[in-house]
Amino acid sequence: MPLAVRYMVVPIAFSIALSLCSPSAAEVIASKSYSYFDIRGKTADELDRELSRRGPTASGSSARHPGATKIRFGGEATYIQNSGRCHVGNVKVTVHTQIILPRWSSRKGASKELSMIWDALSSDIKRHEERHAEIARDQARAMERSIRALPQQRSCEAMQELVSNESARGIEEHDRQQARFDRVEAVNFQKRMLRLLNNRINGRAGAK
C-alpha cells in the first residue's frame, strides 16, 4: 500500500478595515476537524484497491490518496492613520484544517496479520496528516508576526499592498514547507512502515 497523502490549501484572503486610532492587537485562530471515508476488504490487495477507489483527491488532480488535509487560511487587518503615516493595527490570522482519514468498516473477521498491517498504515497516515495541520498552524503564527512587524507607510493604500504581499509570501513559504515534508515522507515510507510493524510484532511478543 503506497503512501501518497496530499494536502490542499486555499489562499489567504484578508478583509480590511481603516481605523483612525485604536490599540494594536494580534491573534491567531486555529481550528481542526476530521472526516472519514469507509473502505472494505479482507486482503491487503482489496484494501489497497479501496483506498485507490475511495480516497480523497487533491486540488487539480483526479488521483485518489489514502488521506488528505484541507487547509484554509483567512484573516483580518486594521490600519491606523496617524500624523501622515499608516501602520497595521489589529491583525487576526485564521487557519482551519480538515483531516480526511480512511476507516476500515469490514475489519471483523479479518486475519490478525492484516489487522496489524492496517493499524500500522492507518496510524502513519494519521500522523502524517496531523503534521500537515501542524505546519499550517505554525505558518499562520509566523504570518501574524511578520505582518505585525511591517514598517509604517505614507498611506494606508501602500500599507494594504504591503500586507497583501507579505501574506502571499507567507502562503508560498507554507507551500514550500508542506512540499518538503511530503518529499521526506515519501523517501522514508518503506523504512517507517517496517519499523512500525516490527514495533507491533515485538509488542505482541512481549505481551505474551
UniProtKB/TrEMBL annotation:
Position of the signal peptide = 1-26
Q: What is this protein called?
A: Putative secreted Zn-dependent protease
Return the InterPro entries for the record: DUF922
> Could you state a single Gene Ontology molecular function term?
peptidase activity
- Is Signal found in the keyword set? yes
What organism, scientifically named, is this protein from?
A: Rhizobium esperanzae
| Keywords (A to Z) from UniProt | Hydrolase, Protease, Signal
Annotated region Disordered: where? 49-68
Chain ranges passing through the membrane: none
